[in-house]
């Protein structure tokens, strides 16, 4: 039993019965649900759009090497520099090298889950380099000393009162400040940081192979400012973020906006092909793209689970998941939470340590139903469970229990050997702890259905 699993059990026990937390989360997700219903009305045939997007992403995943080479060739032709990073350490090392070469000390960041994955802010802090989050939600959790709670909505676990209290504590603004007042305060504060920053760091929603470009979508304009004001722009993206052609943005951008926030299209959508050319006034002087593997190729080697790399990080599966709604984002203790996190995290961070995430699911299939690129998430969770057992990551007691259960369930004689009272006693003796302290164990009826059927027929 891994330490990650023990911590997961402790955290979920606490958070599941935190009524205040549940109230905030349910309220915020309900607002999202309302918006998504409206957003989907822009589609005449949403299923056809999802099928088209799924087919395109799956085609890319199966030919990823070809599209990566094409992207590298076009991006470097545009004047950019591409860096390959095998893992977190290599990615951070390369970023530090760029900062040293450019004598950089201050960084502005737009929202990026990939930078969270490599622990960028914490690593830069060790070298006294300021890395400031400029997305409002990310800025809030950074101020609070926390990690993003959600793939799309980093501060989903906080109410407006919580946020007002935080800003009062940090900046002494009035405790009853409205969201509008707080937003204006942050905008004014961050504007100076954009102008002063040496380096801007962003993620990438998509990497466009045919023109060697980065596609970035956001709602606040902080991404635009992060890549246009500083002299150096660094993009950090997973190797799976590719789409084949710029023309397919008309498919992917609306799907991402609708399923991510319920919008028809996100407010700011940028296509960045590289650093500015001679004579141009806008844009960075240098641009780097760091492509992160970090065990994605291990996931790619799994013929069936590799489809999870099609994910466009819309967060819809989190918002629809009954488990996520109860245990929240932090219980997963990984960068990517919810159903998609439960599928990919065991491959990215270790099956032995994080196999329990694939078991923490009701398998209701809602995540599969909502996914805009039709990833069969509930099926992939089952495949992860199977693989964890095949690799021997289940406990000795699990093996004994399942062996005994299989033997009994496949043998009618053994199944009918004991009456209901004895069966109830066995269940109470061996399964009480697994069933949980708040649920009553079922009582087994005196006669099985098989016996009742035979008596009725006779």
Protein model, in words:
This protein is α/β, with parallel strands linked by helices and 458 residues long. Among the domains are: 252 residues, NagB/RpiA/CoA transferase-like (Rossmann fold); 55 residues, no CATH class. Helix content is 54%, strand content 10%. It is built from 24 helices and ten strands. The strands form two sheets. A six-stranded parallel β-sheet has the order 1-10-7-4-2-3, sandwiched between helices. Strands 8-5-6-9 form a four-stranded mixed β-sheet. The protein is globular and about 95 Å long. The protein starts with a helix and ends with a helix. The mean pLDDT is 93.
Architecture blueprint of SSEs:
Elements: H1 3-16, H2 19-39, H3 46-62, H4 64-77, E1 81-85, H5 88-101, E2 106-109, H6 113-117, H7 120-125, E3 130-133, H8 136-143, H9 160-171, H10 179-196, E4 199-202, E5 206-208, E6 213-218, H11 222-228, E7 232-238, E8 242-243, H12 249-261, E9 268-272, E10 286-292, H13 296-300, H14 316-320, H15 322-327, H16 338-349, H17 351-354, H18 356-359, H19 366-370, H20 377-390, H21 396-409, H22 412-415, H23 420-435, H24 449-457
Helix pairs in contact: 2-12, 16-20
CATH topology of the domain at 43-294: Rossmann fold
Which whole number gives the mean pLDDT?
Answer: 93
* Contiguous helical run count: 24
Please list the strands of the largest sheet in the order they lie side by side: 1-10-7-4-2-3
User: Cα distance, first to last residue?
Assistant: 50 Å
In short:
This protein is α/β, with parallel strands linked by helices and 458 residues long.
């Amino acid at each position: 039993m891994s330490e990650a699993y023990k911590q997961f059990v402790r955290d979920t026990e606490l958070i599941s019965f935190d009524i205040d937390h549940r109230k905030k989360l349910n309220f915020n997700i309900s607002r999202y649900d309302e918006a998504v219903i409206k957003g989907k009305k822009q589609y005449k045939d949403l299923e056809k759009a999802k099928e088209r997007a799924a087919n395109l992403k799956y085609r890319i995943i199966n030919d990823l090497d070809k599209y990566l080479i094409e992207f590298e060739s076009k991006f470097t032709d545009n004047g950019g520099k591409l860096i390959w990073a095998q893992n977190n350490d290599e990615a951070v090392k390369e970023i530090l090298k760029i900062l040293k070469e450019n004598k950089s000390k201050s960084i502005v960041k737009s929202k990026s889950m990939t930078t969270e994955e490599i622990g960028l802010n914490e690593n830069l802090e060790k070298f006294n380099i300021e890395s400031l989050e400029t997305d409002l939600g990310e800025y809030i959790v950074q101020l609070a000393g926390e990690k993003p709670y959600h793939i799309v909505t980093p501060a989903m676990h906080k109410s407006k009162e919580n946020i007002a209290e935080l800003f009062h504590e940090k900046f002494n603004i009035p405790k009853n400040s409205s969201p509008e007042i707080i937003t204006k305060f942050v905008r004014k504060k961050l504007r100076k940081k954009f102008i002063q920053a040496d380096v801007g760091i962003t993620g990438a929603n998509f990497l466009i192979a045919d023109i060697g470009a980065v596609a970035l979508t956001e709602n606040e304009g902080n991404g635009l400012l992060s890549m246009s004001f500083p002299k150096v722009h660094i993009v950090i993206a997973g190797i799976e973020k590719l789409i084949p052609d710029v023309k397919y943005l008309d498919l992917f951008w609306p799907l991402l906006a609708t399923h991510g926030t319920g919008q028809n299209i996100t407010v700011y959508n940028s296509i960045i092909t590289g650093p500015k050319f001679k004579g141009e006034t806008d844009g960075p002087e240098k641009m780097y793209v760091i492509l992160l593997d970090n065990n994605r190729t291990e996931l790619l080697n799994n013929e069936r689970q590799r489809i999870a790399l099609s994910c466009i990080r819309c967060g819809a599966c989190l918002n629809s998941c009954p488990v996520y709604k109860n245990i929240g984002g932090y219980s997963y203790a990984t960068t990517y939470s919810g159903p998609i996190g439960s599928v990919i995290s065991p491959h990215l961070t270790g099956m032995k340590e994080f196999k329990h995430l694939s078991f923490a699911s009701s398998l209701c299939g809602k995540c599969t139903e909502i996914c805009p690129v039709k990833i069969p998430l509930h099926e992939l969770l089952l495949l992860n469970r199977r693989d964890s057992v095949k690799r021997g990551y289940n406990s000795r007691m699990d093996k004994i229990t399942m062996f005994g259960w299989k033997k009994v369930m496949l043998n009618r004689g053994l199944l009918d050997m004991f009456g209901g009272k004895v069966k109830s006693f066995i269940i109470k003796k061996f399964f009480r702890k697994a069933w949980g302290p708040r649920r009553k164990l079922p009582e087994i009826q005196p006669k099985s259905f098989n016996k009742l059927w035979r008596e009725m027929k006779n």
